[in-house]
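Protocol step 4 of 6: structure prediction from sequence.
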Amino acid sequence: MEKLIITVALTGNVPTKAMNPHVPMTPKEIARDVRQCADAGAVLFHVHARDNNQRPTLDIGRYKENVRRIKETAPEVILQLSTGARAGKDWEARANPVRLFPEMASFTTGSNNLPGIVYENSPQFIEFLAGVFKETGVKPEIEVFEAGMINNALYLQRRGLIFPPLHFDFVLGAPGSMPGSVKNLMFLSESIPPGSTWSVAGIGKAEIPLATAAIVMGGHVRVGLEDNLFMPDGSPATNVKLVEKVVRIARETGREIASPEEARRILSLDPARKDRIVSMLD
């Protein structure tokens, strides 16, 4: 098996400090968690932004401050900026994180139900955002909440808007979308093209069981307070505790942990593009 890539979804758009006091909100808190998680074995970081009132925001200045702090604190890690719609639906605002030239950015290739909202990604928006990925050379992580999102990504590939090898993240267990079962994970992992890479993001109680399944199946793992606020014993989680849990499970099963350089090779990321984002921070 390839070495295991551990992604951390640090903050998200939904969790608050009232839900879990360890959720990082400020750029300083986010960068601190990145450093601690990198020291524990994580290499890829899925980054959202919050405003001064801790609300989700697509403000590009806030993204830049998050990136600046992270690059100062953990320059070796892979940054993946979010293009999610909970912070706003304006197409240009959602595309702006990609235009900062991170190594990766999230790309949900379809619409689905989530608690309290329809997570809307119309065919027209998907083609628009795919064009931004093509223009910038940023690698998309295809976020899959439902099986049809795989086919939508393959359609974009046939159109020449995104390019193989594709990387998928299966988001399982979100209320309103595909349940967080190992059966669903196996189905999705067997539905992507040969040569693709994949990770799983289990929501809530599904996080650690699905992470364990992915480790032994040869996939990769995403954990973090965006997806799950509690440890398996019910105690409040921290981002670093979740990473440490995955590392222990991987070591018990004989799976080695990827370094940032190894993760870039596995994900077909060009090391020469590692710091393109730095030039965008002025």
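Step 5 (inspection) to follow. The mean pLDDT is 97.
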